[in-house]
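Worked example 4.2. Below are the chains of a multi-component assembly; read each line carefully before continuing.
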Amino acid sequence: MSFNHQRAQWKMVRLIGLWLVVAYSAAAADKIQVYRVPKERPASSLPPGHSADDGHNHGPGDGHGHAAGGNPHGTPRATPKVTYTTPEGWREAGAGEMRIAGFTIAGTNGQAAQVAVTPLPGMAGRENLIVNMWRQQVGLSELSDDEAGKQLTTVDIGGTPGKMFDMNGKSAAGATIRIVTAMAHLGEMSWFYKLQGDDELVTAQKPNFIAFLKTVKIEEVAAPAALPAGHPPIGGGAMPGGGMPGAVTAATPPKPRQGGPVWTVPASWKEIDGGQFLFAKFMIAGEGDAKAAVNVSSSAGDGGGLLANINRWRGQLGLGSWSEAELQKNTQEIEVTGGKGTYIELSGSDGSTEKPATTLGVKVVRSGSTWYYKLMGEPKLVAAQKENFLAFVKGVKY
Amino acid sequence: MLTRLYNFFSSVKLAVILLALGLILVFWGTIAQVKLGLYLAQDEFFRSLFIYWKPEGSGLKIPIFPGGYLVGGLLLINLFTAHLRYYKSGFKRLGIAMIHLGVVMLLLGQFATDMLSVESHMSIREGESSNYSESSSRWELAIIDASDSKDDKVVAIPASLLLKGGELTHPELPFKLRAKTYHINSALSDSSEASGFEPVPAESAVGRQIWWRSLPKETRMNFRDIPSGIVELISPQGESRPLLVSGYLARPLSLTVGGRDLQLVLRPERYYKPYYLHLIDFRFDRYAGTEKAKNFSSRIRLERPDTGENRELTIRMNEPLRYDGKTFFQSSFDKETELSTVLQVVNNPGWLTPYFACVLVSVGMVWQFLVHLIGFAAKRKTA
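Applying the procedure described above to all two chains together yields the following structure tokens:
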């Protein structure tokens, strides 16, 4: 072997080494990036001849409709505003984390139905998936894409042609239920309107539902680029209790509420904004820095079930989860307006302050919705407020 | 040993085998796109060392065929080693060297494209400006400190780290973050009755339970995955708070931690630029009396605060804007209102290498042909 060939061999070895290093670094993990960016510009910089209310439909998340199905690229963060005319007999149930509006409908014989208006991105073209998802929910078998497509009929949603399907079947509990779902795509966002509940009631309410769909108008309200000092945080992400443990957020005044139950608030309670997730929130100040809060939430159906909610509350107090049997042993029935509620008391330490804390909770089921009332705070203050809390819950008129 | 390895890597036999494997790989990878879609097929067949067989339910990954990086890498080593072993300098063989160099440039150029190129989309509505584009396939968990009146400080955690799980820390974060669960594609529901959905064990759904289900990775070209996950924020005192993050939740989660107002959002990965594109007008021109597309164009004003640049330009279907090393193509628009444009932003530092490579190979082939032709003609003349 000549000297030149030996050198060539070592060059080859170095080349293989280099290739392995490059291949390894190519496969190396992504890294956390930190950067500063100017705050987003306000949407008001419209050119001459245009204005925010120029008559065009600035739908939620528009601007991302991609070929054949609307592949969403980019997500301008803005708050969609929905206006509609509420049919007679429908009661506002407020917004949820996903739904932007909700209603409950009570029948004459104790039947119940719910309506939810939910925007979801990236669902255009997945209508068949949606049809099959709801079919499974009512115990029906999945359909092929062609068959599922045949279930869809055209419906007018605020002047935009939408699709609607109607099906009935059995719920997991064995009750006969009916689901009527309408959907329309605006830009990257798909809007779902779902009427669900007792078969007879939903059938009777379907004309109201179709009339309601015609009245729906969606417009986007651009979020401000920067909040002025002292402005309350925007949006559904606001976490009651101040976000992270140990954090403090300023109390903000409540937004005016439409519909819902009627109650008498004790004088020492101060209502504040509960954010998107709570129907209402009240703060109670005690002696020194003692504080307590009352949260009122409502959800369609069973709201995740009593056990899951109580175990979540137990987690907030640093307590372990209960079994169903333990739950039954530790809850008691109380009289509330028009029926019964489930009452519980829990004691532990508040995860955010590491100080002792007590939680009193009541679950009430009305018109297909479940209401949770929770008083949580410093033990002495909670004990002093127990009577007020129970009187408040018992006096609520739904 | 080294000599045997040297002979193996420089052999023509290896070159032929690798080219044959490359042919099979290209054919197989192209057919696989029908089932896997373009991006997944690219990752599994071409951007990998091996193609794996994953028996369902076993969690095993068994390599069954060399992937693009292995075939390409070995081909590169084969070319270099053969060159070292066989090449003799001289103008008669210059063409061969140029052809080989051209092929090497093609291989390296493609590798550089794979590593360095970024494709994203910029969506702008008429009358609005944007200084960032977003990825179509990559997601990030952005933790935004908006307390400064002028700038936002962003800590962006790639979704690939959430998928790996475990604890994540960064000096800019006032908490540790534990990635507990991450679904690459998902569906959310606010009803317990939806089939296949499970309650989300996260506290973020305060006062309201959310249900979710994992969905298979989207392979259709016109759709994309929408991920959801649970991240646990752990304070310095060790207290934890599990939060639901999801591409479905359009608005960021607001937190106040240690006096800092933070926002937390799972969003498509963003690529910020030091300039703004302001959409003056989007036009969808049709042939008169028909709905047939004639032209799509976006009238844009480019504003660059750091240099004072401020000019108007038009991006059309076959007339992209080339600026700042990036190419902005007219890609799509809002079909409902025709008031928004979608620009595809391609940043590919290696985009010129295929052109240079092809020129080099062509010149090399012409050179080699002429050398033989002249030699042949000279022989005939002397005969």
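Take a moment to check your reading of the output against the notes. The longest strand of chain B covers residues 260-286. The longest helix of chain B spans residues 12-46.
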